[in-house]
Amino acid sequence: MAYALAYVIFFYYFCTLIWISMAKTEISTLGEFGLIKQLTNDIKPLQPSTKKGVGDDCAVMDFGNVQSDKGQCTKDARVLMTTDMLLEGIHFNLEYVPLKYLGYKAAVVNFSDIYAMNGTPTQITVSLGISKRFSVEDIEMLYSGIRLACERYNVDIVGGDTCSSMTGLTISITCLGVAADKDIVYRNGAKLNDLICVSGNLGTAYMGLQLLEREKLVAESYPNGSTPAEALRFEGREYLLERQLKPEARRDMIESLRKAGIKPTAMMDISDGLSSELMHICSQSGVGCCIYEDKLPIDYQAAALAEEMNLNIVTCALNGGEDYELLFTCSLDDYEKLIPIDDLYIIGHITKQEYGCNLIGRNGEELALKAQGWNAFGN
Amino acid sequence: MAYALAYVIFFYYFCTLIWISMAKTEISTLGEFGLIKQLTNDIKPLQPSTKKGVGDDCAVMDFGNVQSDKGQCTKDARVLMTTDMLLEGIHFNLEYVPLKYLGYKAAVVNFSDIYAMNGTPTQITVSLGISKRFSVEDIEMLYSGIRLACERYNVDIVGGDTCSSMTGLTISITCLGVAADKDIVYRNGAKLNDLICVSGNLGTAYMGLQLLEREKLVAESYPNGSTPAEALRFEGREYLLERQLKPEARRDMIESLRKAGIKPTAMMDISDGLSSELMHICSQSGVGCCIYEDKLPIDYQAAALAEEMNLNIVTCALNGGEDYELLFTCSLDDYEKLIPIDDLYIIGHITKQEYGCNLIGRNGEELALKAQGWNAFGN
Question: Please, which residues 164-203 of chain B have a Cβ atom closer than 8 Å to chain A?
């Protein structure tokens, strides 16, 4: 082993140049999901406690009994685990994202993954990589957002790692949650004729981002700090900003579904865009889908801004990411129970796999869905 | 809320310059531990399942019964959680760290934290931030190291996140483990007269790093790729390289202690240097300590290289980080059982707090220990 290691070191010293010039596959050719698949597709669980590994919103572990959040024990309880990494310049721009909101969002996107399994988030660890540009006060501000999210969602910060970075800010949060085994909803349970539902509205966070980017350019056109408040067109659009900067996880929808006695057949949260997520559910469930343009829930502020910016709001609703709404499928039998639920929209139904994934336009035209959403390696 | 948010945005656009010029506290004035303390010192657990939060090698959760790794259920079982972030340019230098070894080390340092609580690691999530400089083959190489470590330590990769980064490579791994409540060893249990023990030897990983840095300079003095193999002085020093590049977690020591029927009173792994870790145990346990220079376990290759490089090997053993050996305290009653254990060294004993933390030199002189180890914000 030791000699092999010395050999590797020699190799590194001598072959750096050759190495660099060798034919290599760019990660963007595979994309995020392709890369993950390539790295993890033949992983076999070694631990009996591992019930579900890579491939859903969360991993699922069976460590035996789990207390539910009301303090009662259920025998089939499971531990859920999810993780998200946010990198400056890729996932956020500190020119217009306040650190407190960033912290809030970084925590909430993890909670959203736990709710998307129909679970309850319980603990997080927070790892931060911090460049010299940041002060103690900055990091306190970031942390205050994380703590606020934890208080609101009843989650404990139980650990983490804090270190300096060469450039920028890195935030990596891992979240644990609990759920009874019988309650867990995976991505692969959608059945023929199931109803496709979403919470809230779509494309709004994306339009919030467009607004921030546009006004950043306006602000930059003035000399430093001299931008008059009236030059920035945020008024009446606060909801778009809030959806982009301070999203909430849909705990309320999970609670509404529970109260109504509905267990979705498949579920995930919409972080990369509706099209992309719906195609995940369909491919993992071995089904197709049909959704209707006129059923897509769209916020009027988002629609108005899209009009103003010459963007197609339907495209934004299909492919704009970061809404953190829930996408789920329910049995047709649950139709009557679904209708009274506030902020829930039925946008289509599950079809046979051969049909593919399609959008029916307002004029009845059929368009194949494409996963054009957020690609972590596409930019 | 929405208006408050718009206000914050305005604030960001207008006050960037003022913000930058405001008096701010540099993080290096607090250091890593001071910053963590400031951010987390008033956190109160909200979840009944949280038994131990920030402040030890791992967080401890009580989700009810936990299967031990032999498939049996014990009623007092706990889930452990730890996380580590590694950043290029801070924690590793890819000029001489092969990606496969880096992956191996990134996983093992997490396992080490679980063993340091006397637990068994079971699952990890792996988050990677990857710049365009890396190819699919590079990341496969990194991942192969992570997977090798997981196979050797019987741990499952159950999830993660993969995204592009602006610069360099970021690795964030979170590890779960299990342990019976009665077996868990915290940092705060050291008692007066307890024996202070370490596994393996100290300062070796640090000397491995010094060797790599020295030979990197040698290699750089030749035109690209033309460094003759005989110019690099690695021969006979493979063990130092291995300790730096491919450390192991001391599962074997945990097993030896169990077999001998010994439960340490306090334990942690040595990642930042013996002095720093010992001072953590003492301050958290409310005790002092006395260790002996001539009892410190030092590898002969490390000592020879220190001599050659004009370094004090005792200073390296006290303050050189990344050994990932175990530091633990045991009751005097266990003395007879400790003696036969291979690769275990008794280096001193616990004293009253008033005595402080001291090293007794070879000539009997007493020196106060200082936490001069790795400071994540000191560089």
Answer: 164-168, 170, 172, 174, 176, 178
Interatomic CA distance for residues B236 and B217, integer angstroms: 19
Q: What is the pTM of this model?
A: 0.91
B291, B296, B302, B304 alpha-carbon torsion, rounded to 10°: 100
CA-CA distance, B80 to B113, in Å (whole number)? 9
CA B45 to chain centre: 25
Judged by a CB distance cut-off of 8 A, whether residue B77 touches chain A is: yes
Please count the other Cβ atoms lying within 10 Å of the Cβ belonging to residue B28.
Answer: 17
Asked whether the beta carbons of B165 and B85 are under 8 A apart, the reply is no
CA distance A105 to B45: 21
CA A350 – CA A195 distance, rounded (Å): 6
Cα–Cα distance, A322 to A341 (Å, whole number): 23
Q: Nearest-CA distance from B315 to chain A in Å?
A: 24
Backbone angles phi, psi at B109, to 5 degrees: -65, -30
Report chain A residues whose CB lies below 8 A from the CB of B26: 132, 135-136
Tell me: the pLDDT tens digits for B297-325?
999 999 999 999 999 999 999 999 899 99
Q: How far apart are CA B18 and CA A123, in angstroms?
A: 37
What ipTM describes this predicted complex? Answer: 0.90
3-state secondary structure of A367: strand
* CA–CA distance, B335 with B119 (Å, rounded to integer): 23
Say whether A164 and B376 touch across the interface (CB within 8 A): yes
Separation CA B301–CA B298 (nearest Å) = 9
Q: Which of B137, B298, B314, B270 is nearest to B204 (CA)?
A: B298
Question: What residue spans of B84-186 are helical by DSSP H?
Answer: 99-115, 136-153
Q: In this structure, what token pair is assigned to residue A86?
A: 């946010």
Per DSSP, helices labelled H in chain A are: 2-21, 31-40, 99-115, 136-153, 204-220, 238-245, 251-259, 274-285, 300-308, 313-319, 335-338
Q: What is the bridge-based pairing of β-strands B59-61 and B77-87? A: antiparallel
pLDDT digits (tens, 9 = 90+) for B210-265: 999 998 888 888 877 677 777 788 888 999 999 999 999 999 999 999 999 999 99
- Angstrom distance (rounded) from CA A219 to CA A238: 18
Strand (E) or helix (H) holding A160: strand A156-164
> Quick check: B157 and A53 CB within 8 A?
yes
Q: What is the DSSP letter of B194?
A: P
For residue B37, the chain A residues in CB contact (below 8 A) are none
CA angle, residues B137, B139, B144, in degrees to nearest 5? 95
Starting at the earlier edge strand, list the strands of the sheet with B366-368: B266-270, B325-330, B195-199, B344-351, B288-292, B357-360, B366-368
Cβ within 8 Å, pair A156-B1: no
Quick one: which of A19, A248, A295, A313 has its CA closest to B99? A19
Could you tell me the sign of the dihedral formed by the alpha carbons of A21, A27, A30, A34, in that order? Answer: positive
Pairing outcome for strands A73-74 and A66-67:
antiparallel
Chain B: give the shortest CA distance to residue A348, in Å.
30
- A161 close to B (CB below 8 A): yes
Dihedral-angle region of residue B27 (phi above 0 means left; psi in -120 to 50 means alpha; beta otherwise): alpha
Q: Which of A290, A294, A328, A343 is nearest to A314 (CA)?
A: A294
Q: Which residues of B352-377 are buried (b: 16+ CB within 10 A; e: fewer)?
A: eeeeebbbbeeeeeeeebebebbbbb
Dihedral pair phi/psi, residue B291, rounded to 5°: -120, 160
Instruction: Look at residue B360 and tell me whether its pLDDT is greater than 50.
Output: yes
Report the alpha-carbon angle A27-A29-A30, nearest 5. Answer: 70
Residue B310: partners with Cβ closer than 8 Å, 6 or more residues away: none
